[in-house]
Amino acid sequence: MHFQWYPGHMTKAKRMMQENIKLVDLVIELVDARIPLSSRNPDIDELGKNKARLMLLNKSDLAEDKWNDAWIRYFEEQGFSAVKVNSRKGGGLKSIQSVIAKACKEKVERDRKRGILNRPVRAMVVGIPNVGKSTFINSMAGRAAARTGDRPGVTKGKQWIRLNKQVELLDTPGILWPKFEDQAVGLRLAFIGSMKDEILQTEELAAELIQFLNRSYPGALEGKYETEPSEDPYVTLKRIAESRRCLLRGNEPDTEKAALLLLDDFRGGKLGRLTLEYPPEM
After folding, report:
1. Contacts of residue 148, Cβ cutoff 8 Å, sequence gap at least 6
2. pTM passes above 0.70
């Protein structure tokens, strides 16, 4: 499969972010804890240079904790402040306010010397589609301040959300980048749902996921779907269809429906805590 998805609204969103970056003190970048490097848009580093940076490993409850900790160390070594969070359930969010204050300490000190007191820190929240930016903002705000959805492309424009007297957040649309140099990155992004499923070959994508799980998490599929193991991912897909009664007329297995079921189960953490990539030195 060849992966690419860069609709016109992403070009517009990137331009909007470039215009607004001068208004903010801090860039808060959310990545998916299961694929922390692949879910980083390389354009963000250029956009956020000369700004304080905070990296959030979101959906950390879906990834293995030992790898979450390894990734936190990796990003801190790269010079970022880094925190693992679970925006949907509120995990890790209590520490964010103090981490923001620490990351913006120099800015607050500069303001104080210029006689500017109590000006709130303004932070731009960035990341790829479906990484959980709006859910993070709503959890921090304690209200439905930003639109959310379990598919890419829900946030279309910018919106400012005041958290409290100390912090204001700018929500931005999720953007990918025009070309994936490494198609393995595109594959991982497709796994987690950062591209529209309508443009993907679902059965092929599910077969790739089955091969990864068989290599890295043997037994995960058999335990979940009560099937016999197979080295052929398409045989496994058939067995999942039969096990979950995904059937066409004549009791033929509906492998398309089984593929969507498998991808939904993976994305929702129903296959257990799974990490798909590891820090470069490991």
Report:
1. 134, 135, 138, 154
2. yes
